[in-house]
Write a structure and sequence with these properties.
- Helices cover about 55% and strands about 15% of the residues.
- The protein is an alpha+beta fold.
- The longest helix is centred in the first third of the chain and has 17 residues, at about 35-50.
- The protein is elongated, with a radius of gyration of 20 Å.
C-alpha cells in the first residue's frame, strides 16, 4: 500500500469509528508495523494543523482519534443541537483530581482524602464519562474501584496520565492545610 492509500485508510477508520483506536489495532488492520503507522499519523496530524482544517487527529495514551477542533465546537452545536461541555464544579474537580492521581481508588478512599461524602460528584463524573468503574478491590465488601477514562484525557487535552502535573510536597501540604481549614470553617 502506498503512503497516500495508508493515509486514506487511516482517515476512513478513525472517521468511521469515531473513538480512539489503539495503534496496534490500526497496524494490524493495515498490515504494517506500529512505527510506520504512528509516523504516518503524526505526519497527518502536522498537515491537518498546517492546513487549518476543522478536524484534527489527537493521540490518547497510544491510541489515535479524529476529532473536531475545539474552536469549531460552537458552530457544530448550532447544527447538531448538542449540549455544551459539562461544567465541572470545584467539588467535582477536587474528586476528579484525587481519582486521577490515586487511581484505581475506591469511593471510601476518596471520601477519606476529601473528608466528606462524594457520592454526587462520583455519580456526575461517571455520567460525564470522565471516570469509570475498573473492577473491585479484593477486600471485604468488594468495593468498586474508579479510574479516569479516555474522555478525561480528551477533556483536559492530555495524551496520557504521565502528562498530569507533578505535585511537590509543599503543594500537597498547602492543599492539605486548605482542606483542613475548609472542614473546620477557619479563614485561610
Amino acid at each position: 500500500m502506498k503512503i497516500k492509500e495508508l493515509e486514506a485508510s487511516l482517515e476512513a477508520i478513525l472517521f468511521t469509528l469515531g473513538e480512539a483506536v489503539d495503534i496496534a489495532r490500526l497496524a494490524q488492520a493495515l498490515e504494517h508495523d506500529e512505527d510506520t503507522i504512528r509516523r504516518i499519523l503524526r505526519n497527518m496530524m502536522m498537515r491537518y494543523e498546517e492546513e487549518d482544517r476543522g478536524i484534527h487527529i489527537i493521540e490518547l495514551d497510544g491510541a489515535f482519534q479524529l476529532c473536531t477542533k475545539p474552536e469549531y465546537y460552537e458552530a457544530l452545536i448550532k447544527i447538531a443541537h448538542v449540549p455544551k461541555k459539562h461544567v465541572l464544579t470545584d467539588v467535582m474537580l477536587e474528586t476528579l483530581s484525587i481519582i486521577a492521581y490515586k487511581q484505581p481508588i475506591t469511593r471510601n478512599e476518596i471520601e477519606r482524602i476529601r473528608g466528606v461524602k462524594c457520592d454526587h460528584a462520583v455519580n456526575r463524573l461517571i455520567e460525564y464519562n470522565l471516570i469509570c468503574e475498573t473492577g473491585r478491590l479484593d477486600a471485604p465488601g468488594r468495593p468498586i474501584l474508579f479510574a479516569t477514562t479516555e474522555e478525561f484525557l480528551r477533556y483536559f487535552g492530555i495524551e496520557s496520565l504521565e502528562d498530569l502535573p507533578i505535585l511537590n510536597q509543599e503543594t500537597i501540604n498547602t492543599f492539605r492545610k486548605e482542606a483542613e481549614n475548609e472542614v473546620n470553617h477557619l479563614p485561610l
